[in-house]
Amino acid sequence: MTYLQAITDGLREAMRADERVFVLGEDVGAFGGAFKATEGLYDEFGADRVQDFPIAESAIVGTAVGAAIAGLRPVAEVQFADFVACGFDQLVNVAGKMHWRTGLAVPMVLRLPSGGGFAGGPYHSQNPEAWFMHAPGLKVLAPSTPEDAKGMLMAAIADENPVCFLEHKHLYRRVKGAVPLGDHRTPFTARVAREGAELTIVAYGAMVHAALQAADAFEPGRVEVLDLRALVPLDEEAILASVRRTSKVLIVDEANETCAAGAQVAALVADRAFSDLDGPVRRVATPDAPVPFSPGLEQAVLPTPDRIAEAARELLAY
Amino acid sequence: MLTEEPRSTASSSPRGRAPHSPEHPPPPRPAPPAPPRLTAADRAALLRFMVEMRTFEERGVALYKQGRTPGSFYDGHGQEAISVGAAFALGPDDVICSPLIRDLGAHLVRGTDLAQIIRHHLGRDNALSRGREGNVHFGDVDRGVIGMVSMLPDMMVVAVGLAMAFRMRRERRVALTFFGDGATSPGAWHEAMNVAGLRREPVILLCENNGLAYSTPTERQFAVGPAERAKAYGMPGVVVDGNDVEAVFAATHAARERALAGDGPTLIEARTMRMHGHGSHDDARYVDPAVFAAWRERDPIATYEARLRAEGTDVDALRAGVLERLEAAVQAALAAPLPDPATATDGVFADGPGRTLGRGDAPWSGHAGPEAGR
Ligand SMILES: Cc1ncc(C[n+]2csc(CCOP(=O)(O)OP(=O)(O)O)c2C)c(N)n1
């Protein structure tokens, strides 16, 4: 099934298994959501459990917090990840701090269709994961495959904490794969997407696929691709273990470069695996500019397989 | 699909109850019940909570000036009738989310331990905040009270979410939230009002309109007052005298009945005056002394005390009891240790189910009345 169908399947399974789980967001009801991620749920579960909300991101996030501390398990959809900025205060100051302040658990999930590559322009292409990583108390996930999209979503719904679930729009219908039926949960740990001995490419979300394509440019067995899957908690041991094996690391981010998730990975490697390195820690990311609309311009900023392969070539030769 | 009516979600059918809109109003409700009757003991309790609030806060200002309180101190002198009167109308399962700067009375009515509150203010180890937050930033989850965050009025949205959960589970409980006139300007206020009115959530939205947001008078805050705006969001806006504890109690009681009947939220605008600056650091020179003088005549405690005294309540004994309890609590708090520094980063994430919201005191003697037989 597709990445998108896997998300719908995960939602459906979680809602069937636990009546505390409900969905809220803009146009998620009978319409099935802007990307059709909630398609069919309204017919099966009704208006109580699939709630159309007004265009009010503070209210979507904040009422989800209220419902969560009252014992329900809301899964809120932010129509495009970019719009989470409108509800950001609720996320950072209310959701993220609630457990530390009060001991109340906040078992909620915020689904965030994110990323570029489809001429969405500067307001529909962002990758806001680093915003959340910097705010204590939020878990941050970014699956790259249909199996993980379902497994991590179901694990996120079962988690007792507020989870920012970044699902990549570019993958929705482009990526297909086998997905286990029924209850399926994936741990929040990294995964070796391809094994290699000479260089580790660290990526997550859509960039895993770009990194795999880039790795195809080299002989099999040279380039390892590590799919982070979770940014908070960050699987530090898996990153360090891979880098220690290969001794070189290239970190790919679709987000703007400064303080991106990859910067945290780079700092980790520099701090804890410096003596295992045979080359500089390199990064490929989107420059610190908004994502432009026109296809040529968009491709000029987003990391492409070519750009990743070029950086990999330089590092391998270092 | 695009022309479909918004669906309400409160119903026993999975598809929600019949849609409602101005063209399809819900059936008329029976006339509201008569205002609740307060016994002499209820009245004494209302006075006692107000006196307790002011006495405690006067002592708090003194502790702050002695340098014993880290940070700052904020109090609600002049506004005691609001949080006391409103919280007194709640049932034990109702939730307050959240009391603000001038709402100590709500904590006292819900039964939160005074010594713990003082330990919190002093930054000592305590069950309410564990020293992680200070001054007015505390709640008591065990008693169904969730503390505020600074961003006004963020917790109003959360209160709407709590009410939504109560309605979805068909529980007989409401959420009460407080906010000032200044807090009616940010977007979160409008989002909370819109969603609460649209979905008819069982939430009581209590505005403490003291005419000032820090130093900014309401004339420079909004063109249309909160109670008037309430109608535009599909709920009644009720104006009450915020210096009359029984008026606040009655308005909150009526709002609660309305919410429990499935008729949705009520905004109560309690008109009052903040009798000093925003906090201990603010000398309020922006207020005309004549305005303070006029409001002092209407002090919520002095006027109620005079009335109860005339009705035969032993006010002196009541005050002596308050002082005695306060003194014992202060001494107990001063003897408490500071929190263990090693705990500062504990509990950022939950690793299992969190605490659950407990039941608060519901000291109103008549509470069993309207509840009984339902
Ligand atoms: C979103 C936000 N902006 C600014 C502040 C700083 N601030 C704290 S209290 C306050 C005034 C609030 O006015 P009001 O709610 O009317 O309460 P009052 O002080 O008059 O009792 C301000 C501006 C804040 N807490 N939140």
Could you state the oligomeric state of the chains shown? heterodimer
**How big a fraction of the residues of chain A is strand?**
15-25%
The unreliable regions of chain B are 1-25, 369-374
Fraction of residues in helix of chain A: 25-40%
Percent of sequence in beta strands of chain B: 5-15%
Structural class of chain A comes to: alpha/beta
> Spans of chain A of 5+ residues with little confidence (pLDDT < 50)?
none
Strand order of the largest sheet of chain B: 2-1-3-4-8-7
Q: What is the general shape of chain A?
A: globular
Number of strand segments of chain A: 12
Biggest sheet character of chain A: 7 strands, mixed
Query: What gyration radius of chain B follows from the Cα positions, in whole Å?
Result: 21 Å
Shape of chain B: globular
Give the termini distance of chain A in whole angstroms: 41 Å
Number of helices of chain A: 11
Largest interface: A-B, 47 and 57 residues
Structural class of chain B: alpha/beta
Task: Describe the main β-sheet of chain B briefly.
Answer: 6 strands, parallel
Any ligands, ions or cofactors bound here, and which?
A: thiamine diphosphate
